[in-house]
Amino acid sequence: MPKKDSPQRRRDFDIIQTPNADKTAWKLIHEGNWMDYCIRDAFRADVSIIVDLIRNSFRDVADRFCLTEKNCPKHPSNCKPSWIESSLQKGARYFILEKEGVPCGCVALERVQPELCYLERLGVVPQFRGRGFGKALVQHALAEADAMGSYRVEIGIISAHTELKNWYRGLGFTETGTARFKHLPFEVTFLAKKCRQWAL
């Protein structure tokens, strides 16, 4: 297991975290090239940015699984400002990853119990995929949950989305079960991961 402050190598990229005021600055080496970016807290003024990121990130998923506003109105591809505003009012935290000031992706973290957080609405827009940004957002959310004293983080995804399921497994998440919901036209798989301070 790597030391807490050392770069963690995974496949073709390293991620190094450095504190920077209210942001978390990162350097990522991908295919031999350094890229600087930051992950910051999002606020009410960022609602329109978050909505655009989520809708654009989930549009291809909706197309793949034939999800429309009619048969799956709550799918993130149909995200509306009111969803984000309501989520923020309930205490959820959103984080935006930016490269050179351009929003590339986001993730939400909701603390539903003192020991449990939900990872929600993780998305990276298509033109910025394949650079490790999704992994960086997940790691940031896990670190934030850990700092809050939460024991574990859970997420629900479309069961048939095999590649995404395998991607989360690669990040250390394990499947905890599946379920069907009347308002969703697909089965949901739940995955979970312990936060760092509870990992041993």
Describe this structure in words.
The protein has 200 residues and is α+β, with helices and mostly antiparallel strands. It has a single domain, classed as 3-Layer(aba) Sandwich (Aminopeptidase), CATH 3.40.630.30. It has 4 helices and 10 strands. The chain is globular and about 35 Å long. The N terminus is likely disordered.
Write the layout of secondary structure elements.
Elements: E1 8-10, E2 13-20, E3 23-30, E4 33-41, H1 47-64, H2 81-89, E5 93-99, E6 102-113, E7 116-124, H3 133-147, E8 152-158, H4 162-170, E9 174-180, E10 187-194
Parallel strand pairs: 7-8
Antiparallel strand pairs: 1-2, 2-3, 3-4, 4-5, 5-6, 6-7, 8-10, 9-10
Question: What's the number of helices?
Answer: 4
Task: Find the structural class using helix and strand composition.
Answer: alpha+beta
Strand order of the largest sheet: 1-2-3-4-5-6-7-8-10-9
Shape field: globular
Overall average residue pLDDT: 86
Rg, rounded, reads: 16 Å
Domains (count): 1
CATH fold label: Aminopeptidase
Query: How helical, in percent, are the residues?
Result: 25-40%
Please provide the ordered H/E string of secondary-structure elements. EEEEHHEEEHEHEE
